[in-house]
Amino acid sequence: MNEPDTSTIDINGFPTRVWRKGSGPKIGFLAGYGGLPKWIPFLDRLAQTRSVIVPSLPGFPGGDRGHSVLDSHLDWLLAVRDLIDHADLGASDLIGSSVGGSFAAEVAAIWPDKVKRLALIAPFGLFDAREPAADPWAQKQDDIPALMTHTPETYRALKQMPSGANSIEWPIEQTRAAEAAARIFWPLGNTRLERRLPLIKAPTLILWGAEDRLLPPSYAGAMARAIGGHSETQLIVGAGHLAELDKPDEVAAAILRFMS
Amino acid sequence: MKFLWFHLMPYKELPEDFKEKHPSVWVDIHSSLFDPRRAHHMYNEFLDELEFAAACGFDAICCNEHHSNGYGLMPSPNLIASALARRTTNTAICVLGNSLALYNPPTRVAEEFAMIDCISGGRLIAGFPVGTPMDTTFAYGSNPSHLRERYYEAHDLVLRAWKEKETFAFNGRYNQQRYVNIWPRPLQQPHPPIWIPGAGSVETWRWAAEMDYVFCYLSYYGYKMAQNVMQGFWEEMAKLGKDRNPYRAGFAQVVGVAESRQQALDLYSGPAEYFYGRCLHVDPRFAAPPGYVTEATQRAGIESQVKMVAEGKGGTGPATNASSATKMQSLARDMQNIVANGYVIIGSPDEVAEQLNELATTLNVGQLMLLMQFGNLSSELTKYNTRLFAEKVMPRLKGLFSEWENRWWPRPMEPRQRAALPAFLPQAAAP
Questions:
Q1: Which CATH superfamily does the domain covering A5-258 fall into?
Q2: A32 closest CA partner among A245, A205, A194
Q3: How far is A182 from chain B (nearest CA, A)?
Q4: What is the ipTM of this complex?
Q5: Do B138 and A138 touch (CB under 8 A)?
Q6: Which run of H or of E encompasses A51?
Q7: Of A150, A208, B34, B400, which has fewest CB within 10 angstroms of its CB?
Q8: Stated pTM of the model
Q9: Helical segments of B253-293, H only
Q10: In this complex, which of B141, B144, B303 lies closest to A179 when CB atoms are compared?
Q11: Contacts of B300 in chain A (CB under 8 A)
């Protein structure tokens, strides 16, 4: 697994990391809860046949303190639209997972020209009181990996501080990612996304980890029913909330098949 | 030296196996544990105790704000303060305080504090805490990533509402009001003294110093554990060019006084163990909502941990920079260690006076808040503790820091100008 190319774009005055790897038709990825402090195997799998572009969300690892100036839902969506434009992702295929999945869905709904085909992995944005989502912000730190992934070692490995990293800034960056998600999704993860879903006309693949302990897999059905265009839904067995960490090959294969 | 009698108003009948059977005293404490008929008696006893402390000669009586909390039954301290304003005459009333970011609009705080100030004839001390994560982000659902900015903005709005003479529009990031014009207005001009309860955050110290407010360290762990925090506070004041006026700082201390140390142990061990064992049992998952602690404070905390490890210093007891719920997980819960660690000061009047003298001089604190009802301490013993303290301990310490001016104390109306005490004595009126 070799490293991607890294460049920096400016989002609201904050230097923001963009990763690129591979060649072929462009495909974008917006990361899930906790963000990407490291490149992951899932992206490598995509890069075998596609040009993968991964801009960091504001406040996520690589996104500096970009979240700190985003007060409203509209502020967030405009920042993500800038991200897509500045990373040269317009009119491309787009994948979003978890927190990033919610943004990918919003962009596809509100700016349909920016998204050719859409893949959503257990996106945030809905809440059903009959089957409430778990609270990711009221957890002991040790309990987070098992909430995010079916195989907690994968999340732990992603968040493990590499040798040579700044031992003070690394943990602060990981907390910042959780704060950035809280800033828009506190307290229930509910942004009434269902009101915008009918505007999505791009072909959409909905993927959900069958063992998702954070957002109930039943939310996939509600999402599929609300989306305006063609959609397909697939459960990923043996995967938790961040299915791309648990089952990188299967998730990548499903997306590439849908988007070929 | 000022003596402030502070009531937390704990629910006094949590079951003996509370810590084993229930995950948390706070946020999701079960409703079945609360009996409103028992709470009726508790509230009335608590109010009696506060009034009793005022009658005994304490300089102030204090209450504070908590939500969904089994050891703090005051979601609205202003209700308590207004009741106290009608039943006391010369004692300051310290509300410590209103968590500004939780009030919508925050001008509600400006109004209610102005009401209490008017009713009491200018005896209010206005406390502005950010509020704990349990109260603010979990019980009240306030967003931790916005909380501090909301707090500072609400503070600016309340202060302006108190000071400006004309109706004005407030165009804030979180609050927009076309017509800000509070009625009533505070009696103390330009506003009541402002005190900021907080923990060991450098940013809070700097802000309190810049605004010329009192900083109050409301620890439950006694003066020995507080040395680092208060040393940091005074070093920061020195850096900012502020004097060492001890009235810039407040500190809360649990105290149990009796005829002898042994008698104090006999009387207060049970209630102290109830407080530290049952009341301070908080689920650690509520300890650290992301964003509640600023990155500067996180950085300072990690740096000091790294330094302590490098110097080979093991932690004894809760780390000063740990979150409140994390501290609560690791504290001593048996009386021997509660006393050994200095959480509670107990003893004869001489012994208590000596320890409080050490507290005041080592921490350099002039506004001393005393928790003299704690845990399930009975009303009778609470009054005994309070009276003995007022008669035998207070006089020995009263003169401490007399060389300093307390610029942060209420300036009430002259007693002869004030309304007479209410003649509310229904039992006397009965046939």
A1: Alpha/Beta hydrolase fold, catalytic domain (3.40.50.1820)
A2: A245
A3: 7
A4: 0.95
A5: yes
A6: strand A51-55
A7: B34
A8: 0.95
A9: 261-274
A10: B144
A11: none
